[in-house]
Amino acid sequence: xxxxxxxxxxxxxxxxxxxxxxxxxxxxxxxxxxxxxxxxxxxxxxxxxxxxxxxxxxxxxxxxxxxxxxxxxxxxxxxxxxxxxxxxxxxxxxxxxxxxxxxxxxxxxxxxxxxxxxxxxxxxxxxxxxxxxxxxxx
Length: 138
Fold this sequence. Notes:
By secondary structure, the protein is of the alpha+beta class. It has helices at residues 7-22, 25-28, 100-124; strands at 33-34, 40-57, 66-85, 88-93. The longest helix has 25 residues, at 100-124.
């Protein structure tokens, strides 16, 4: 059965609590920014972190002293902005994707918008009458 009173547990608990206080939902999806023209801008970030800890019980005559340490790093990188204006939501990416699959996925919303606009335009435009003067005859 593991010893829950071991000093490494306190070291890990303290490190994780401090890390939790740094990273919350507002770190990934930032607070909304409202502009005077009614546009709402929401920053989106990528959060990466690494964590390492270690320790050793050093034998001694009276008791076994403990030596240990922990370290971590956090990276917050802005990747996009959600822009909401007039009921329309757009995603403005900061870095273009170099991966083909990511580029295709990122193009899907734009393609849907273009197709919807085309279909809407096609329904509202009157049918064109054929121009018989330009026909070729053999």
